[in-house]
Amino acid sequence: MKATKHVDEPRTSRRKGRREARKAVQENQRGPFSRTQHELRIRLSRADLVIVSLLFIVSLALFVYRLGVPSWYEYDEVYHAFTAEQYLLGNPEAFTYYSRPLPPAISYTWNHPPLGLWLIASGIETFGNTSFGWRLPSALFGSAGAALAYLLGLYLARSRPVGVLTSTLLLASGLYLVQSRVGTLDIFEAVFLMGALLCFHLFLTSPLDKLRWPLVGTGILLGLGIATKWDGAYPAVLVGLVVLSRLWKLYEECEGRRPKPYLLRALNEQLVLAPLALVVLPMVIYILAYTGFFVSGHSWGEFVRQQQAMFRYHSELRATHPYSSPFWSWPLDLRGVRYSGAHGHGIVMRTYALGNPLVFWALLPAVVWVCYTWYRERHPALPVLSIGFFGQWLPWMLVPRIAFLYHFLPALPFGCLAVAVVLRRLWRSGEWRRVPAVAYVGLVVAAFCFFYPIYTSLPLSPHAFGLRMWLPGWR
Question: Whose C-alpha in 56, 95, 167, 367 is 20 to 30 A from the C-alpha of 49?
Answer without folding.
Answer: 367
